[in-house]
């Protein structure tokens, strides 16, 4: 078997990625009860060999500029495939065991996913505490296998990249340094703490009631994010129509976007986490949500619509590397963060829900609170993950610092046993945080260039369309430069976190 040249590799990789994406989609939305990624990887095993990697490395060295970057992304994907080939069966087995896991609750046998979804809607504080505890017990019973998989992946990645240190390895892949990102977001968190503390007290009182613990458990987070006591305003039934209307004001007609395939149905095995699976951008982009009622449905829909419009809006003639591959997700998250932040605009609440000015301001403040809470959680999570992976080659992965850091940053208790379920691959937390910084910069830019009501002006959509056309090619740092900010300039973010709605 001889290796393919970069162009032939790209074409075959495209077909492979489409199959994998469709399989992931079927499991995610509950159409399939078992994940069979391993069979797909086995069929395309010829793509992921040392020989193939060598050919791509040579080609990358012989090119420059955008062409070199395109081949570099093929090479990185090939490296990942070599690792995947070795562990995909174990990953499938873990995924399938999680799908099969059951939680006993009030005389019912719930799937773990349904139990997690239930946490968002269980009305009594004590019930959420109790359900959270059994969910955590069930989920953390898989920690040994999660840790074993991380170890195996680490050892394979060290071998295939030649970089033994996990943090350095990820920095090379992303093309940035992670500690300066942490420094910037830690400072932003500290600077915005005086604004956050009273906001937190006010909203926890309103959302969790006076009998709550001083530091409530993270089991209440989904309930908090839904703004459940305001559910009568932010109904499940209206979420799609309001979001479609919101996008229309920006000049996006979701129904006319041929590439976007919405899946908005409620199924018991469907993951409660909304997502976009870009199987073949711009032609096939799945937009998947599962509404449960509450403001979070609206934010999740707008967030995922940002990804979907980005992927479905790219120039079809771009190479695969710039239509769907990327070194990380920091670019696409800018657009989803920008769109979901519309829920932080008082005018949006007034316009779509018929609220008086005071109520609209109040509810927008709730959205700002949950946004601040999540920003603080992720900033602490990045600090924890950097320590976790720095220690990893010597200690093999421990929860040290997880509970302390996340709890101190948020005032919500994140139990140590959750540290592995809460670990996204490849420092995704850093991608989110760069998007937090960038989306705030972009809003400052739009307020200046388009107006304070940028969120309902077609000029905003037109600017976004221009960016979407470039697909995944630019880095988030390039976007900062274009709008006149330094990559780690957190001034707009701190100003927003500190400002009343
Ligand atoms: Zn996202």
Question: Could you explain how this protein is built, in words?
Answer:
The protein folds into 2 domains: 6-100 and 142-174; 178-498, Neurolysin, domain 3 (Orthogonal Bundle). The protein has 21 helices and 5 strands. It has helices at 6-28, 37-43, 50-62, 65-100, 112-118, 125-140, 143-161, 166-174, 178-208, 221-226, 239-249, 295-312, 320-323, 330-340, 346-353, 357-395, 402-410, 428-449, 458-469, 476-482, 491-498; strands at residues 102-105, 108-111, 260-263, 275-280, 284-288. The longest helix is centred in the C-terminal third of the chain and has 39 residues, at 357-395. 44% of the residues are buried. The chain binds zinc ion (ZN).
Helix-strand blueprint:
Elements: H1 6-28, H2 37-43, H3 50-62, H4 65-100, E1 102-105, E2 108-111, H5 112-118, H6 125-140, H7 143-161, H8 166-174, H9 178-208, H10 221-226, H11 239-249, E3 260-263, E4 275-280, E5 284-288, H12 295-312, H13 320-323, H14 330-340, H15 346-353, H16 357-395, H17 402-410, H18 428-449, H19 458-469, H20 476-482, H21 491-498
Parallel strand pairs: 3-5
Antiparallel strand pairs: 1-2, 4-5
Helix pairs in contact: 2-4, 3-4, 4-7, 9-16, 9-18, 9-21, 11-12, 12-14, 12-19, 14-18, 15-16, 16-17, 16-18, 18-20, 18-21
Bound molecules: zinc ion.
Zinc ion binds next to α12 and α14.
């Amino acid at each position: 078997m001889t290796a393919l040249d970069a162009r032939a590799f790209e074409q075959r990789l495209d077909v492979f990625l489409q199959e994998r994406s469709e399989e992931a989609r079927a499991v995610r939305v509950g159409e399939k009860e078992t994940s069979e990624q391993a069979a797909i990887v086995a069929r395309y095993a010829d793509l992921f060999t040392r020989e193939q990697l060598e050919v791509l490395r040579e080609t990358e060295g012989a090119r420059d500029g955008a062409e070199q970057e395109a081949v570099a992304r093929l090479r990185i994907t090939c490296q990942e495939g070599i690792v995947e080939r070795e562990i995909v069966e174990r990953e499938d087995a873990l995924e399938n065991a999680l799908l099969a896991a059951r939680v006993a609750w009030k005389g019912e046998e719930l799937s773990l996913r349904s139990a997690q979804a239930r946490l968002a809607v269980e009305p009594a504080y004590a019930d959420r505490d109790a359900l959270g505890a059994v969910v955590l017990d069930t989920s953390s019973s898989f920690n040994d296998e999660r840790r074993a998989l991380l170890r195996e992946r680490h050892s394979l990645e060290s071998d295939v990249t030649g970089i033994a240190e996990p943090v350095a390895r990820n920095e090379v892949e992303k093309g940035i340094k992670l500690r300066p990102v942490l420094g910037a977001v830690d400072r932003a968190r500290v600077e915005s703490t005086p604004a956050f503390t009273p906001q937190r007290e006010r909203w926890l009182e309103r959302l969790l009631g006076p009998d709550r613990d001083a530091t409530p458990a993270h089991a209440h987070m989904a309930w908090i994010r839904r703004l459940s006591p305001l559910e009568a305003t932010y109904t499940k039934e209206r979420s799609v129509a309001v979001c479609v209307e919101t996008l229309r004001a920006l000049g996006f007609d979701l129904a006319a976007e041929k590439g976007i395939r919405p899946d908005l149905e409620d199924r018991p095995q469907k993951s409660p986490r909304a997502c976009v699976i870009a199987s073949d951008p711009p032609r096939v982009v799945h937009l998947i949500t599962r509404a449960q009622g509450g403001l979070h449905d609206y934010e999740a829909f707008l967030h995922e619509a940002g990804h979907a419009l980005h992927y479905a809006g790219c120039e079809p003639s771009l190479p695969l590397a710039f239509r769907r591959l990327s070194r990380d997700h920091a670019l696409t998250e800018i657009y989803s963060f920008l769109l979901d932040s519309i829920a932080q605009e008082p005018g949006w609440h007034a316009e779509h829900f018929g609220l008086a000015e005071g109520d609209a301001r109040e509810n927008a403040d709730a959205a700002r609170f949950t946004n601040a809470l999540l920003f603080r959680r992720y900033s602490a999570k990045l600090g924890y993950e950097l320590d976790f992976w720095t220690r990893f080659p010597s200690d093999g992965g421990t929860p040290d610092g997880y509970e302390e850091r996340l709890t101190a940053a948020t005032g919500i208790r994140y139990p140590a046993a959750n540290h592995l379920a809460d670990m996204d691959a490849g420092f995704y937390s850093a991608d989110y945080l760069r998007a937090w910084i960038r989306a705030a910069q972009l809003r400052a830019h739009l307020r200046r260039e388009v107006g304070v009501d940028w969120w309902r002006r077609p000029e905003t959509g037109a600017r976004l369309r221009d960016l979407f056309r470039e697909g995944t090619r630019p880095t988030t740092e390039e976007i900062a430069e274009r709008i006149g900010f330094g990559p780690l300039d957190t001034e707009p973010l701190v100003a927003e976190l500190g400002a009343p709605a």
